[in-house]
Amino acid sequence: MTPSEHEMPVGAIVVDFDGTACTVDVSETLLREFGDPVWETYNDMVDRGELGLREAAHRQAALLTASREEMLAFAIEHCPLDPTFAPFVAWARERALPLTLVSDGFAFYIRPILEAGGIVDLDVITNEMRFDDGDAPRLTHPNAHPECIGCGTCKMRSTLAFREAHGPVAFIGEGLSDRYGALYSDVVFAKDVLVDLCERDGVPYLAWDTFDDVREALEAMREPPGPVAPTWCPGWTDP
């Protein structure tokens, strides 16, 4: 019998891109190669709560000095997908499980890297990077929260939309912006910074290293823990 979504403990899967589906944080890799070293200062300000993720990304994007084509070529060469990601996408498709990338990065490199890794027609929710002649790159946010300005792409909002449409959601991530998706997901797969954030927020999580780990855990799972779902997202920032 062909596996169906009803045999799985979740109805949809949300995956972060930088450092998760991709082996490295591509935005930071590009900043190290083509940006002013001051970009790290903005990360420190975010860690201290002095700056939101969206504003930090705006300031960092403006530090990039190379063309879109030059940065894309570098990213495709130096930032490969996790080798277990493409088989995981195929596995989800065989089970009719919607799988979507939700990213708060610079975004313009996601589809080219996916295509270089043999993945096409994957849903991606992210920012947009504008490259206007003579101007510094500029981020826009078609998937932001309509009120909060904390993040560029609202992972809370995306996760809640998938839960409403498909039922329980699995979230896979590793970084700070993933915190806000993890809080509203039914089962969370966490590594790196997201592990500490889940422990701080009381979010049940499963540690993972490869997407094979995620696949095996989902196949063995009978029922997801359910979301913490605080009434107020801790990343909320007023204009």
How does this structure look, described?
By secondary structure, the chain is of the alpha/beta class. It has a domain at 5-24 and 80-220: Rossmann fold. It is 40% helix and 12% strand. It has a 6-stranded parallel sheet with strand order 3-2-1-6-7-8. The protein has a two-stranded antiparallel sheet with strand order 4-5. It is globular. Residues 1-6 have low confidence and may be disordered.
Low-confidence stretches: 1-6
Which structural class do you get from the secondary structure elements? alpha/beta
Instruction: Evaluate the radius of gyration.
Output: 17 Å
What's the CATH class label of the domain at 5-24 and 80-220?
A: Alpha Beta
What's the rounded overall pLDDT mean? 94
Main sheet strand line-up:
3-2-1-6-7-8
In CATH, the architecture of the domain at 5-24 and 80-220 is: 3-Layer(aba) Sandwich
End-to-end distance: 52 Å
Assembly annotation: single chain
| Strand coverage percent | 5-15%
User: Sheet with the most strands?
Assistant: 6 strands, parallel
Report the helical percentage.
25-40%
How many helices? The count is 11
Please name the defining characteristics of this protein:
disordered N terminus; two-stranded antiparallel sheet; six-stranded parallel β-sheet; single chain; 8 strands; 239 residues; alpha/beta
Topology:
Layout: E1 12-15, H1 17-21, H2 26-34, H3 39-47, H4 53-61, H5 68-78, H6 85-94, E2 99-102, H7 110-116, E3 123-125, E4 128-130, E5 138-140, H8 155-166, E6 169-173, H9 179-182, E7 187-190, H10 193-201, E8 206-207, H11 211-220
Parallel strand pairs: 1-2, 1-6, 2-3, 6-7, 7-8
Antiparallel strand pairs: 4-5
Helix pairs in contact: 3-4
